[in-house]
């Protein structure tokens, strides 16, 4: 008799709460990096296109660490993977101290790269970790739930960034606020790592590998297929690359858009950026609820279409109307990363952890796309928002074609 699968099991609750907190932590650093993007333009006097190297440092680390983090996780397990990610995260945060003292953009990028290597490791581990904490049929819900707290971190990051930007406006060469903030971040991350080292992780049978005897038999044939011959996974890697490309570009120039199109201060624009993260949080909670009635791949296509419309409005530069549309991009963007990730991992069997590494590597798109948007933004920051439409068309195509790509999960 068929029963509704549980969200998770009681034995996994403590671990689920902890791993969910990791999503919050890298959400803070991800959006704080976008505030630094504008701060470096002000303080170090660099162009929009050159400031986009902040995103290249962050997202490039995801490409660099994707496979090593996956191999480490496969060899030493989820818990040790988390601890390694937290160690790199803390080390990168502490390197902001000498970077600020030297006032070197290159040094800052090195610190960001190491910190982001930690974020990439956590992300590689946390997604399959959360997916493993229950039935595969509810893995989409668990990942979207955890990603909602990534939105909480995304809300906190710009709030912290607005403080840095306000200090930068008061003092033209102020990097002290940056240094002090990252010292605090490093200490908090180190404390979290120490706490997690004492948590006992119950034995986990990854539901993507074996759910029950029926699943094992049904998935046996597909498990033998080479990873990159599984069309749904391959398209997920491509979709994730374009998804994070759109995210990286949209967030990198959000504050510039507020300053140049709506004519508000950088610190006030950062507060609106924080507000847009609330929109993303709402979108993830709404999306998680809707997935109980609408198949995830269908909802993904609907939200992608919504963002195509929002980008068209933003690109017109219609003052507050376009700025509100820019806020709504995050609402529709909300479910994209976790849903693409989860759909890509479906039915990969023993190749799940390897597949997770490659999907994380697709995040490099967030480092490359802002460079192209920055070149256009040097002339018109509004017109730069035509480019993400390409990305959302790819995501729409992935969701629309998913039933044919993976007939078993559809």
UniProtKB/TrEMBL annotation:
<feature type="transmembrane region" description="Helical">
    <location>
        <begin position="52"/>
        <end position="73"/>
    </location>
</feature>
<feature type="transmembrane region" description="Helical">
    <location>
        <begin position="269"/>
        <end position="287"/>
    </location>
</feature>
<protein>
    <submittedName>
        <fullName>L-fucose:H+ symporter permease</fullName>
    </submittedName>
</protein>
<keyword id="KW-1003">Cell membrane</keyword>
<keyword id="KW-1133">Transmembrane helix</keyword>
<dbReference type="InterPro" id="IPR011701">
    <property type="entry name" value="MFS"/>
</dbReference>
<dbReference type="Pfam" id="PF07690">
    <property type="entry name" value="MFS_1"/>
</dbReference>
<feature type="transmembrane region" description="Helical">
    <location>
        <begin position="233"/>
        <end position="257"/>
    </location>
</feature>
<dbReference type="InterPro" id="IPR050375">
    <property type="entry name" value="MFS_TsgA-like"/>
</dbReference>
<feature type="transmembrane region" description="Helical">
    <location>
        <begin position="357"/>
        <end position="377"/>
    </location>
</feature>
<feature type="transmembrane region" description="Helical">
    <location>
        <begin position="12"/>
        <end position="32"/>
    </location>
</feature>
<feature type="transmembrane region" description="Helical">
    <location>
        <begin position="299"/>
        <end position="318"/>
    </location>
</feature>
<feature type="transmembrane region" description="Helical">
    <location>
        <begin position="106"/>
        <end position="133"/>
    </location>
</feature>
<keyword id="KW-0812">Transmembrane</keyword>
<dbReference type="GO" id="GO:0015535">
    <property type="term" value="F:fucose:proton symporter activity"/>
</dbReference>
<dbReference type="InterPro" id="IPR036259">
    <property type="entry name" value="MFS_trans_sf"/>
</dbReference>
<keyword id="KW-0472">Membrane</keyword>
<feature type="transmembrane region" description="Helical">
    <location>
        <begin position="145"/>
        <end position="166"/>
    </location>
</feature>
<feature type="transmembrane region" description="Helical">
    <location>
        <begin position="80"/>
        <end position="100"/>
    </location>
</feature>
<feature type="transmembrane region" description="Helical">
    <location>
        <begin position="324"/>
        <end position="345"/>
    </location>
</feature>
<feature type="transmembrane region" description="Helical">
    <location>
        <begin position="181"/>
        <end position="199"/>
    </location>
</feature>
<feature type="transmembrane region" description="Helical">
    <location>
        <begin position="383"/>
        <end position="402"/>
    </location>
</feature>
<dbReference type="InterPro" id="IPR005275">
    <property type="entry name" value="Lfuc_symporter_FucP"/>
</dbReference>
<dbReference type="GO" id="GO:0005886">
    <property type="term" value="C:plasma membrane"/>
</dbReference>
């Amino acid at each position: 008799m068929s029963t509704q699968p549980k969200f998770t099991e009681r034995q996994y609750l403590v671990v689920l709460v902890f791993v969910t907190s990791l999503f919050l932590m890298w959400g803070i650093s991800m959006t704080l990096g976008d505030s630094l993007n504008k701060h470096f333009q002000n303080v170090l006097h660099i162009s929009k296109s050159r400031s986009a190297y902040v995103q290249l440092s962050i997202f490039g680390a995801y490409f660099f660490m994707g496979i090593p983090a996956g191999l480490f996780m496969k060899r030493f397990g989820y818990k040790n993977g988390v601890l390694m990610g937290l160690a790199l995260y803390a080390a990168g945060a502490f390197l902001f101290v000498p970077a600020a003292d030297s006032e070197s953009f290159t040094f800052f990028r090195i610190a960001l790269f190491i910190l982001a290597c930690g974020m990439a490791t956590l992300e590689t581990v946390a997604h399959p970790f959360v997916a493993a904490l229950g039935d595969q049929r509810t893995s989409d819900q668990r990942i979207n739930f955890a990603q909602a707290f990534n939105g909480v971190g995304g809300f906190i990051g710009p709030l912290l960034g607005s403080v840095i930007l306000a200090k930068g406006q008061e003092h033209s060469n102020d990097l002290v606020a940056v240094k002090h903030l990252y010292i605090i971040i490093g200490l908090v991350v180190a404390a979290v790592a120490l706490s997690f080292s004492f948590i006992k992780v119950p034995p986990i049978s990854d539901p993507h590998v074996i759910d029950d005897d029926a699943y094992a038999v049904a998935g046996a044939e597909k498990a033998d297929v080479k990873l990159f011959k599984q069309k749904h996974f391959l398209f997920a890697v491509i979709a994730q690359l374009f998804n994070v490309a759109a995210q990286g570009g949209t967030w990198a120039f959000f504050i510039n858009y507020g300053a140049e199109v709506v004519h508000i201060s950088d610190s006030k624009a950062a507060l609106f950026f924080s507000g847009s993260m609330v929109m993303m949080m709402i979108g993830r909670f709404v999306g998680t609820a809707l997935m109980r009635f609408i198949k995830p791949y269908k909802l993904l296509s609907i939200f992608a279409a919504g963002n195509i419309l929002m980008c068209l409005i933003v690109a017109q530069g219609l003052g507050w109307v376009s700025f509100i549309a820019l806020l709504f991009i995050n609402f529709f963007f909300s479910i994209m990363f976790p849903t693409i990730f989860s759909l890509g991992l479906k039915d990969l069997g023993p190749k799940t952890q390897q597949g997770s590494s490659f999907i994380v590597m697709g995040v490099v798109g967030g480092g490359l796309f802002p460079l192209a948007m920055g070149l256009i933004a040097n002339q018109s920051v509004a017109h730069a928002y035509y480019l993400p439409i390409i990305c959302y068309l790819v995501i729409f195509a992935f969701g629309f074609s998913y039933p044919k790509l993976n007939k078993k999960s559809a």
